[in-house]
Write the structure tokens for this entry.
Amino acid sequence: WDAYQNIWEDLVPQGYIMAFPRTEGSLIPAPDHDAFGKDLAFLISKLQSENSNAASPFFNHVNNKSALMGHSMGGGSSFLAAKNNTNITTMVTLAAANTNPSSITAAQFISIPSLVIAAANDCVAPPADHQIKMYDSLASVCKTYLSITGAAHCEFANFNLNCSFGQSTCSPQPAISGA
């Protein structure tokens, strides 16, 4: 979660509320994708409910619109969270990886506006096997697929040892810098 400081430092000053679950982040035991999707959906519902809680610092400060965003497993789990969930009004994924249960299958039940961002040099979750299949399966009529030429899987975030290790084991390597 802390690898995404580059994102929250840009969005929070603009008035966005961001929440980063710290669940399902270990390698052993392996992450439970379905549980992580449920955690993402819970956070959105909980934050939205705080709008009407007079004791909350978010009282009367939460818009009824929400965006779900995730990278890699979090991107794939975003599809699981958005499936049949009316509290989520848009979705953005970054180098999303297919999950178990399948985020590609879940996409068939998602009709909200969605932005699927891929890295053309992603060898961890290759676009042809992951993001393109998710995008093509989306039921949304308002959807966009964006591929960043020369980028690889980990360049959506700041340095993260686990992500960088995975990316270093395959090719092609990034042709552009993270910046």
The longest strand covers residues 114-119. The chain is about 30% helix and 10% strand.
